[in-house]
Design a protein that fits this description.
Layout lengths: L11 H17 L3 H4 L7 H18 E3 L16 E3 L10 H4 L1 E8 L5 E12 L13 E10 L4 E12 L5 H7 L6 E4 L5 E4 L2 E7 L19 E11 L46 H4 L26
Antiparallel strand pairs: 1-2, 3-4, 4-9, 5-6, 5-10, 7-8, 9-10
């Protein structure tokens, strides 16, 4: 780093000289990351490379599945280790992994399907109450790289709004069931029979080319999670659950903006932009827990700016 300090008044000609010199220095001595910074890698190519790394990892590693054959192993640690010639009889992670695809729009506007893997180590008891991709989840977790380095850990449960987490985490959590809980007289809460498992995601569903403190660029990620309970979210408080703010019915509330005002319905208190709040149009005429449709055109009032 070059630091210049001018302590006395100088004449205009000298000022001009120093200005010229300073410009010359700033142009010729730019940091390498500004001069030679690489453009982001192609999303499709990177997703294929990441999937090859993840599948290789899944096929060459196992977890202690034999320790989770009973319902009394809530506190048992999930341990991942390498398959060797001495334990080649064990099932690999790949034998348990369930693959799904998550679409991602690249910088070029192309839809690139990314492969996401999850393993249910222990099923939670509330199998009909799994979190959606927009709900809040109370969980503990541990995050690791494929080389085993741990980059984050929350042993004590924390609330996460899945709308504000990386995409692989958001879409992976929806496969895990919460448990049950009861509150003691002293105010503490005990959880039981909660879901536990593993999520394996490519870098495109993680941080991609944005390096984090302990995560290099283009890193596939592993998360070990325990899902204790969930809260169905209504982010804008309009009476419509966030997961149902999905008029085009594609299962993704993140691309629905009925009034095209730049605010998706999930965060918009007036979804159709007619000046009447959604909560006041939703079920006001005849409260029957069904959205009103005053002109019977098949579009509920809160999405129809003509009513």
């Amino acid at each position: 780093m070059i630091k210049l300090k001018i302590e006395h008044c100088i004449y205009n000609s000298v000022k001009f000289y120093y200005l010229f010199l300073l410009i010359l220095i700033s142009v010729s001595c730019r940091p390498d990351d500004e001069e030679d910074a690489e453009p982001p890698r192609d999303y499709l190519e990177q997703s294929l490379d990441d999937d090859q790394l993840i599948t290789q990892y899944l096929k060459t590693h196992y977890f202690n599945y034999y320790d989770f054959n009973t319902t009394s192993e809530d506190d048992k640690e999930i341990v991942i280790d390498t398959i060797t010639s001495d334990n080649s009889n064990l099932k690999s992670l790949y034998d348990f992994a369930i693959q799904t695809t998550v679409p991602l729009i690249s910088n070029a506007g192309e839809i690139i399907d990314h492969k996401l893997y999850h393993i249910i180590v222990k099923e939670g008891i509330r199998t009909n109450d799994r979190p959606s991709i927009v709900d809040s989840v109370y969980l503990s977790y541990k995050g690791k790289l494929l080389n085993g380095i741990e980059f984050d850990k929350k042993s004590n449960p924390v609330w996460f709004d899945t709308a504000n987490v990386i995409r692989g985490f958001r879409y992976g959590l929806q496969y895990f069931s919460p448990g049950i809980f009861f509150q003691r007289e002293d105010g503490t809460v005990d959880f039981d029979k909660f879901g536990r498992g593993l999520i394996f995601m490519p870098s495109g569903l993680g941080y991609f080319n944005s390096a984090q403190t302990s995560i290099p660029t283009y890193s596939p990620l592993i998360f070990e999670i325990s899902v204790f309970t969930i809260n169905k979210s209504d982010h804008d408080g309009d009476g419509v659950l966030s997961i149902n703010e999905d008029p085009n019915k594609d299962g993704n509330p993140y691309n629905d903006d009925t009034d095209e005002d730049g605010v998706i319905n999930m965060y918009d208190e007036d979804d159709d932009g007619d000046g009447i709040l959604t909560k006041d149009e939703l079920d006001g005429n005849d409260p029957d827990n069904l959205p009103d449709d005053s002109n019977n055109d098949g579009i509920p009032n809160y999405l129809d700016k003509n009513t």
